[in-house]
Amino acid sequence: ALTVNGVAASAAGTSSASTTGTFTIGTRTAFADAQIGMGSTTLTRTSGPTCDALDPGTATVITGSAPIAQSGLAVGCHRYELTGVNAAGLTSTISTSVIVGP
């Protein structure tokens, strides 16, 4: 599970808003695959002027245990993706976006 700015991420993607660019990653839980076993779980933030124009060059891997403070993020869209890869190499991704602006 992943919760950012109080909103839970989903496979379809969710979104929330922040006027300050300061909020918290409240929950970050590794994916579980009881049948095959998980290989890894990665949390990545990608930013851009809008959620339709994210810049892959801004991708940042976020490490650490929740809660994780996010502060001073620029006006625009910041997408958080939690990707799990199981032992067979199959991936699962959930995401949520935070739109920063007035």
Describe the structure.
- The N and C termini lie far apart (29 Å).
- With 102 residues, this protein is mostly beta strands.
- 22% of the residues are buried.
- A five-stranded mixed beta sheet has the order 3-9-8-5-6, with no helix packed on it. A four-stranded antiparallel beta sheet has the order 2-1-4-7, with no helix packed on it.
- It contains no helices and nine strands.
- Helix content is 0%, strand content 57%.
- Strand 5 and strand 6 form a beta hairpin.
**Which structural class do you get from the secondary structure elements?**
mainly beta
Strand segment tally: 9
User: Counting H and I runs of at least 4 residues, what is the number of helices?
Assistant: 0
Estimate what percentage of residues fall within beta strands.
over 45%
Order of helices and strands: EEEEEEEEE
Residue runs with pLDDT of under 50 for 5 or more positions: none
Roughly how much helix do the residues carry, as a percent range?
A: under 10%
Radius of gyration: 14 Å
On the 0 to 100 scale, the average pLDDT is 92
Distance between the termini: 29 Å
Form type: globular
**Which strand order do you get reading across the main beta sheet?**
3-9-8-5-6
Biggest beta sheet summary: 5 strands, mixed
